[in-house]
Amino acid sequence: MPELRTDAQLVTAYTAGDRGALAGIYDRYSAGLYDTAAAMLRDRHEAADAMQDVFLIAAERMRQLREPERLKPWLYAILRNEVYRRSKKRGRALPTDFSAMGAPEMAAPIAPDAEGEALSAAELGELVRSAACGLDERDQLVLELSVRQGLQGADLAAALGVSAEQSYTLVHRMRERVDRSLGALVVARAGRKDCPELADVLRGWDGQFTVLVRKRVARHVENCERCERTRKKAAPIALMGAAPAFAAPLDLRDRVLQLAGTPGAAPRHAYTFDADGGFPRLLRRARSAAVVFGAAAAILLGIGGGAILASTTDDEPALATPTSVTAAPTTATDTSSAPTTATTTVLTSTTSSTSSTTSTSSTSTTSTTPSTTAPPGVLSMSSAVVDLGAFGNGATVTMRNTGGQPLNWAISGGLGPFALQSTSGTLQPGQSAPVTVSVNRSGLPEGDLERVLTVTGGSSPGLALVLRASVERAPALTLKTGPSSPLLVCQWQNPSVYVEYTDESAIAFPAIVEWTGPVSGSNQLKERGTTAVYGDMPFTPVAGQYTYEVIVTDVRGNPASLTGTFTVQPC
């Protein structure tokens, strides 16, 4: 039976001693946690170890979570530190073949000459997610948490261990890098069959998606309506959500639940849980010079049998990369690959908001003045999922412009039976606008409702807004046979009930009958055909008045009851 308790109720129950509540937490969040860990660590066994440690640490530290309703970002904050801890130990080895993890859930890499019509959204999503392995570690984490797991706003900031303002900046920069590095790649893979000119540009392409190839494709897309349509339909950020997920080992659940709460089971960790709300402190990553300097100069993205080198300068084509790349230590004075003319490289520290700009030439070093142009408008939402449940009729999502320029936003996609108060508008920098979501359940059958809408605006290529609700109806019960008063002690036979039911869903057994009076008890009812239940109330009679209740619940958890009374008299 699905877990119906809220996150806050599960946390409260577990801290009060209900070990079964941890099973509910595991069932709710293990899939997303493992999917993120596997994508970040690129090793299924290490991902399983990381997720096991997350739940063991959570079980030990759950009392420190001061806002139980924020369980989800709290778990991802622990996962963040466990991923950083492991990547710190082994360094950043960037495989160019994501299937090297041996994950049978993921399809094989897409051949460079595959035709666009043959590529599904899932395949393109896999391509994008594979390429994301080469992003800077924090960029990849931002991408996974915001796009795959739906964390936004304060929850995303808490999971990342940064302020809300910093999280907006991180998301904006990540989206820019992903769009720049992967947009042309997706068009190259998905659109070459539809555009002969693009096919000419890519003629002889062997899978090494160098900067030179990317620049050529990007220039072509700017002047080609067909490829521009492909680019809009196949936005990398949107495709990221279509990638198949990694599935956790089946035996991991039993292992976690068996170890949880055992003294000494939780691994030793160097971080504390004294950040705001009882969240774990950010585990600082040991960033080598290769990561700091290389992230600004180039982002190496492994794609199947090839690679992308996304340079911030785009002045030179990238060299073909080997099948496996490890980030090697580099010093700031390494100029072995620098051009002979002056080049500007911007270095952005992950632990400081200060950026420095350095000009390097063969004879002198000068400083340049950072641009004061306001950043473009950036659209964010207060929540990526609106769940009205079975009885909610309205909720509000807030659209906000966190950038420096005005933006126009719009929501598209099939709505019915949902409705939005507004679907478009204009936001000035720092301005927000509420969007009220409602649902009309009239005439709908019992079941779950879900619609996925696309929200666009500013520099955001497309955010997913998920609307959910459900239609629930309890079974209808009719008493056909029940105990008729008075019943005599000296002529005693166990009273019985026979109840017919109708429901749009199947009935969850067992149904039960309970009775109270001078003697109380309960008994399970048997199924009679597909429309009725029956059974006895066995007890040793004592004179007095009794009340009984028949309880029938459908498989969606909707209960219905029917009550009656009878008397037992002495002879």
Count of helical regions = 14
Strand content: 25-35%
What is the gyration radius calculated from CA atoms?
A: 30 Å
- Largest pleated sheet: 8 strands, mixed
Oligomeric status: single chain
Report the uncertain regions.
Answer: 92-118, 286-371
Helix-residue proportion: 25-40%
Global outline? elongated
What structural category characterises the helix and strand content?
Answer: alpha+beta
Count of β-strands:
25
N- and C-termini, Cα separation: 46 Å
Strand order of the largest sheet: 18-20-23-22-21-24-25-19
pLDDT averaged residue by residue: 77
Give a short overview.
The protein is 31% helix and 27% strand. It is built from 14 helices and 25 strands.
Please explain how this structure is put together.
This protein has 571 residues and is an alpha+beta fold. Among the domains are: 91-262, no CATH class; 379-471, Sandwich (Immunoglobulin-like); 476-569, Sandwich (Immunoglobulin-like), CATH 2.60.40. It contains 14 helices and 25 strands. The protein has helices spanning 7-15, 20-41, 44-61, 71-90, 121-131, 137-148, 153-160, 164-190, 196-201, 211-222, 225-233, 236-240, 252-259, 289-297, and strands at 93-95, 208-209, 298-303, 306-311, 324-326, 343-348, 355-360, 365-366, 379-381, 385-387, 394-401, 407-412, 418-420, 424-427, 432-439, 447-457, 460-471, 476-481, 487-488, 496-502, 507-516, 521-528, 532-536, 544-554, 559-569. The protein has an 8-stranded mixed β-sheet, with no helix packed on it. A hairpin with a 6-residue loop joins strand 6 and strand 7. Helix 7 (153-160) packs across helix 8 (164-190). The longest helix is centred in the first third of the chain and has 27 residues, at 164-190. The radius of gyration is 30 Å and the shape is elongated. Residues 92-118 and 286-371 have low confidence and may be disordered.
